Amino acid sequence: MSTISLAVPLNHFLHGMSYPFRTLGLLLRTPSLWQYILVPLLINIALGVGLYLWLLPIGMRRIEVALAGLPAAAIFIPVATFLFALLFLLIVGIILLWFGSLLGLPWYLRLSRKLEALRGAAIPAQPFDLSGALQDIVHALGYELRKLLVLIGLGVPLFLLNFVPGIGTLIATAGGLCLMALIACLDFFDPVLSRYRLRFREKVRLVGALMPASGGFALISALMVFIPLLNLFSIPLGIASGTLLLTDYHWQRYLRR
Question: 182-221: per-residue pLDDT in tens?
Fold first, then answer.
C-alpha cells in the first residue's frame, strides 16, 4: 500500500516535469502558433545577451572580492566559486524572467488563448473595453508589486546567508533555486490566471493545490530559466507549457476546492 501511495504523487510530479518537452513537440507540429513565439523570442535573446554582457563582468568582480575574504583552503575555494557562480546565474535568470515576461506579454496572452482553444477549453470572447483594459493594467501592476515583495522578503535574507562562512552560500543557493521555481511557475501560469483576474494569493494557493504536478513543473521551469542560452527560449516555452498543464488539470476545479 505504501509503495502505491508514493508512486501516484511521483507520477504526477514527473508528469508535471514532462510538460515543456511535450509542449515543444506540439509547437513544432503547429506552425500557426509560431507567430506568437518568434517576436518575444527575439526580445528575450536581445535582453539576455545584454544582461550577460552587462552583469557578467560585475559578477566576476564580486565573486573575486567575496572569495578574497574566505579561508584559503584548497578544497573550499573551488566549491565556494561554484556556489557563487550558481547564485549569479540565479540572479540573471530572475531578471530575465521578470522583464522578458513583461515585454512579451501581449504575444503570450494570445498564445495562451490559442492553446486553450486547441485543448477544447471554452474561452469567452474578450471585446476591447477601455475600463476593462485599465483594470487589467492595475491588476498586472498589483501582481508585479506583490511578486516584488516576495522576492525582497525572501531574497534579501537568502542573499545575507552568503556572508555566513561555509554552509551559508549552499543554503542561499538552494533557497534561491526554490524561490526561482515558485516565481517561474507563477509567471508561466499567469497569462491564463490573470485573464480571470485571480489575486496573487489565489495564484499561490492554486500552485499548492496542483501539487505535486505543479512542483515538477516548477522545478523544470526553474532549471530552464537558470541554464544560460536555454533561458532565452524558456519563457515562451514555459508559458505554453503552463497553459497546457492548467488546461489539462482543469484548474478551475482545484481553485473552487
Answer: 888 998 998 888 888 788 888 888 998 898 999 999 999 9
The C-alpha angle with vertex 27 and arms to 128 and 228, in degrees rounded to 5, equals 100
State the angle between helix axes of 168-193 and 213-226 in degrees (0 to 180), rounded to the nearest 10: 110
Q: Residue 239 domain-assigned? A: yes
DSSP 8-class letter at 126:
-
- Judge whether 127 lies within some domain: no
Residues 254 and 70 sit within 8 Å (Cβ to Cβ): no
For 216-238, how does the pLDDT look when each residue is reduced to its tens digit (9 = 90+)?
Answer: 999 999 888 878 778 788 889 99
Q: What is the pTM of this model?
A: 0.78
Number of domains in the chain: 1
Instruction: Provide the residue range defining the domain that includes 42.
Output: 2-122+133-256
**Residue 250 CB burial class (10 angstroms; 0-12, 13-18, ≥19):** exposed
